[in-house]
Amino acid sequence: MTKTLRGHRYTQSLDLDDSDMEGYLFKQSADGHGRAAVVWANTRGGATRTIRLDSSEATGVKLIDLFGNVTPLPAGGGVVSLPVELDPIYLTWTARKITDSVAVLPSPLEVAPAANVMPSGRDTIPVLVRNDTSSPMFAILHVSAGERAGVTVESSEIPVNIEPNSTRTIDVPIDVIEQLDRIDWPQRWTVFSNVAADSFDPTTLTAIPRELSIKGPIVQAQVAHLRDHTLDLAALAGGYRERMESVCIAEIESTKDQTIQAGGSADWWMQWVVNGKQVFSTLETGNNGGQSVVEHQWDVPLKAGKNLIVVRVRSGSKGFKLVTGGPEELAAAAQSAGGASNAISFELRSGESILARQQVRVSRRPVVQPLGALSWEGPASQWEMVDPQADLGEAEIVNEYSKQPDSTKWWQGEKDLSARMWLRADAEFVYVLIAARDDVQKDADRARAALAFPGGAIVPAELLKSEHIGAETWHWLRVARAGETSNRISLNVQIDDDDFGGLKQTLSWRGPVEGGDTSTWWPPALQ
User: Across-strand partners of 436?
Assistant: First the structure.
């Protein structure tokens, strides 16, 4: 970087229309004609940006990689296609005028960075190709799927012919590979807090107990659900001090004898036992790393049927939590980190020139389960035994007073407002059940939900009833499926909290239900 930018001074940042990308422009200090730009991606590469360099008379255009390798670039009309990767890429050129400016143009290739596909079978990914020039475009769209993307591509080369100053949308067909023997990592955990240190042998358990009767007082069970792959053990224990111990227990089903991968971390020590045998431990070393599902990874041997997972966790000096995930969570983390093996790659070429390229992460839509043995009209207690589809808290809160000095009106924690949400469906309705926790329960508090269908139809849910149960208010909502044949839906829920005669805060899963961007809503699939 020093060699490439020597003699230049910073002039402005470049808006690359992606929060993951950064770009900066520099001008030569001596005569002002020399220019340099540097761009990179923070978490995922494999994209391009089209840049107009000052005027059509820009000369000496060169692309320089991190190791100093130089590639001369054609700049027809002063326009170049610049790759954006995890490593910095430098672009240098000579401008005709000192006052010439730089503009980032819309990419000739536009596709969403993540594709929510059906769980299996045929699907399509819409790709917009743009021709902003005064000449016809004759190009080839090259499509390839990484080995871990979970899809296959029907056609790897698609001819694209577009008239001047026009666009074309191409629905690229893909086949989603069916996931056989899928393992769903436990989301519901039974937690025992404040267990006397070194008093409990996790290899002795064969089932989830209601209480632990070991050295010290009897410890009662608490039920907790993962939120962002995390159990907040400090909150469950009512605080923490270093080396406090909690025991977390869950069951996992397997259709056959097999070994899967799990991952996670703890703040700060942990021991994992599956079916009475230790499979991983950091009790000797501590976590020694960050807090994520990929920080440590290990094999989990499973037998056909139910398997018991027992985890001992000891708190560190600055926190107390467990982060964990299974095969699906590890795969999702790998996709988020980027890389062609986890994505579908699109590349638009005209002759030998690469006009644009982009990588798209693939995410399977979760399947909405039928009611099964659950009764929609039955008691709320039956839902406590099944995992919710969402556990919402601080990340989803929008507080109307958060920028004001009176902190008593700020969000006061999960007891102030948080929620769990279950989703089920049958041939007639999609059912939404929300359990909202609020220490000031008022009839003015509202729960809302809506479904978005392909084609733009947004259908608000009908609120059937609300009931105060302990510290929670349960809301039963449903949406009729009449006239909607698509199995693709997007869902959002919102809770309005009125603590003192006016709106204090809202809890919304994916932005506002009314007037929000439905492309950001949760995208499940109906059976």
Answer: 419, 473
pLDDT at 175: 92
Adjacent-strand bridge partners of 145 = 344
C-alpha 88/C-alpha 4 separation (Å) is 12
Contact between 358 and 346 (Cβ < 8 Å): yes
Residue 215 scores a pLDDT above 70? no
**Assigned CATH for 380-520:** 2.60.40.1190
If one compares 103 and 10, the residue with the highest pLDDT of the two is 10
CA 232, 234, 235, 236: dihedral to nearest 10 degrees?
A: 90
User: In the chain, which residues fall in CATH 2.60.40.1190?
Assistant: 380-520
Q: Give the pairing of strands 390-392 and 137-145.
A: unpaired
Q: Does the pLDDT value for residue 339 go beyond 60?
A: no
Q: HSE (CB half, 13 Å, CA atoms) of 527?
A: 11
Neighbours of 52 (CB within 10 A): 18
287, 268 Cβ separation under 8 angstroms? yes
Q: Are 426 and 371 in contact (CB under 8 A)?
A: yes
For the sheet containing 390-392, what is the strand order?
390-392, 418-425, 429-437, 472-480, 462-469
pLDDT reading at 166 higher than 70: yes
Distance between CA atoms of residues 327 and 435, nearest Å: 29
Cα separation of 167 and 162, whole Å? 7
**Percentage of residues of the chain with pLDDT beyond 90:** 18
Looking at 2.60.40.10, 3.30.70.360, 3.40.50.11540, 2.120.10.30, the CATH number of the domain 109-180+337-364 comes to 2.60.40.10
- The model's pLDDT over 113-143, given as tens digits with 9 standing for 90+, comes to 788 888 888 999 999 998 887 788 899 999 9
Question: Is the Cβ–Cβ distance between 450 and 477 less than 8 Å?
Answer: no
Name 48's Cβ contacts closer than 8 Å, sequence gap at least 6: 81, 82, 83, 84, 107, 109, 354, 355, 356, 357, 358
Q: In whole angstroms, what is the distance from residue 231 CA to residue 185 CA?
A: 14
Q: How far is CA 404 from the centre of its chain?
A: 31
Burial of 443 (0-12, 13-18, 19+ CB in 10 A): exposed
Backbone angles phi, psi at 37, to 5 degrees: -130, 145
